[in-house]
Amino acid sequence: MNGIPLPGEFGERARAIIAGEITPVPARDAATVALLRRTRPQGTHGDAPALEVYMLRRKASMAFAAGAYVFPGGSVDPRDADLALAWAGPAPETWGRVFGADARTARGLVCAAVRETFEESGVLLAGPSGDTVVADTTGDDWEDDREALIDRRLSLAEFLTKRGLVLRADLLRPWSHWITPEVEHKRFDTRFFVAAMPPGQRTRDVGGEADEVAWLRPAQALDRAKDGQIVLMPPTFRTLTELTAFDDVEDVLACDREIVTFQPHAAEVDGEMWLVIPDEDYRMP
User: How many domains does the chain have?
Assistant: First the structure.
C-alpha cells in the first residue's frame, strides 16, 4: 500500500468523516503550472542540456502544504472567468472537455494558471498579439501590477486589458487532475498544466507565498525528497516522476495526455488510519 499514516487529530478526523459524523469541506477549483526550461547544468561542459522545472518552497506559516516544494499555482479567483480579456488558443470549451469541466470553470482554470504563474514566478504567458509573448516582465511597473494581482486589487482581465495583452492559452498543456483528500481542512480541486519558459523572460527570486525558489531537474528534486532534504506532496512527486521520462521541453508539450483524476482517501488498516495514495509510483520518503 502506498500511503501516509494519519496520527492524532487527523486520524480522528478521518474516522469521523468515514462514519459520517463530519462533513468534508468542499474542494475549491485551483490551477498549478509546472514551468519548464532546458539548460546546461552549472559547472559542466560535456553534459547535455537538462530539463528543469521551477519550484517554490511554501512558507512555514502557510495553512496548506507548509514547507513543501511546489509548482506555481493557487485557487481560482471568481474574476478569473471574466469574459473581458483577449484570448488566444484552445477555447474554454476545449479545455472543459479535457478536464471534465463546464466552459466557465475551464476558463477560470486557464486564467488562474496564467495569473498564478505571473504572481509566483514573474513569468507571464501573454503577449501583444495571439502569436507573440511578452519579452520582459522586470521593472517597477510590472512589480506594482504583480502585487496588485496578489492583493486582488487588480483582476487578470483588468491587468491584461490595461497593458493591451492577449492571454496565450496555447502556451499551456493539460497534465493531470488531483483532488485534496477529504480529511484536509483546506481542499482543492486542482488541474495541473505544463508550460515552457518564454524566451527572454526571467523568473523572480521569490514569489509571494514562498521563501525559496529553485530550478531543479525532476530527478534531482526526487532524490532530494528521498534523502529528506525537501518535502514533496504526492501530486508534485508524481508530476516530477513523469517528467523524468523527458529530455526536451518540446517533448513534454507534445505529449498526448489522458487526464486521470487522483484523490487520496483515508482508510483504516490494522487499527490505524492511513491516507491511501492512488499512485503506484509514490513511495513515502
Answer: 1
